[in-house]
Write a structure and sequence with these properties.
The protein contains four helices and eight strands. It is α+β, with helices and mostly antiparallel strands. The strands form two sheets. Strands 3, 4, 5, 7 and 8 form a five-stranded antiparallel beta sheet that branches. The protein has a three-stranded antiparallel beta sheet with strand order 1-2-6.
Length: 183
């Protein structure tokens, strides 16, 4: 058998099989999106001086066929800004530049996962408060306000599914706010 004739017969068959696999992959892949991400960080100076951070977002399972469970959630802030805030507040350094675990019960043992259902958002969120080392001067308060304002402009949300895959999404909150027409 001539090699040219062989490849004229086998080539289209291999191409058809490859195209079939590609179409199957594209139509059956899993897709989870982050929706409505919102984070607020502010300086509070009431009885005591502290920074208050709260965030919320929804994970939205938009495409797929397998059950999706979320086992762990993390938030990661800019490590340089976080180190600057560490000078003024009693915060764990691990929180900046390293994933900060969400404290709503996920990831503390078997059975803590939340199931994502196709087309239904699952909401996540948490709140933290970190006390100041000492009373801040007016100049330090302004500096901290500026740092906190920059902190929520860009951050990352991470989650681990039950299949062991870790996903990260960078949130550009200022762009999201502008896109939604809030500003």
């Amino acid at each position: 058998m001539d090699w040219i004739l062989f490849w004229q017969i086998v080539g289209p068959i291999i191409g058809a099989i490859g195209s079939g696999f590609l179409i199957h992959y594209l139509t059956h892949r899993e897709k989870v999106e982050v929706k409505h991400a919102n984070m607020l960080a502010k300086l509070k100076m009431d009885k005591d001086t502290h920074i208050h951070i709260e965030y919320s977002f929804a994970l939205f399972y938009t495409k797929g066929t397998r059950d999706q469970y979320i086992g762990q959630i993390w938030v990661e802030f800019d490590k340089h800004l976080w180190k600057k805030l560490k000078r003024y507040f009693n915060i764990p350094l691990i929180f900046g530049g390293v994933p900060m675990p969400m404290s709503d019960g996920l990831g503390h043992g078997p059975g803590d996962e939340r199931k994502l259902e196709l087309g239904k958002p699952q909401w996540f969120g948490s709140t933290w408060s970190f006390p100041a080392w000492r009373t801040l001067t007016e100049g330090e308060s302004k500096n901290v306000d500026d740092l906190l304002h920059k902190l929520w402009h860009r951050y990352k949300i991470g989650w681990k599914d039950t299949y062991g895959k870790t996903h990260w999404k960078t949130i550009h909150q200022l762009k999201e706010i502008e896109k939604r027409g809030i500003l």
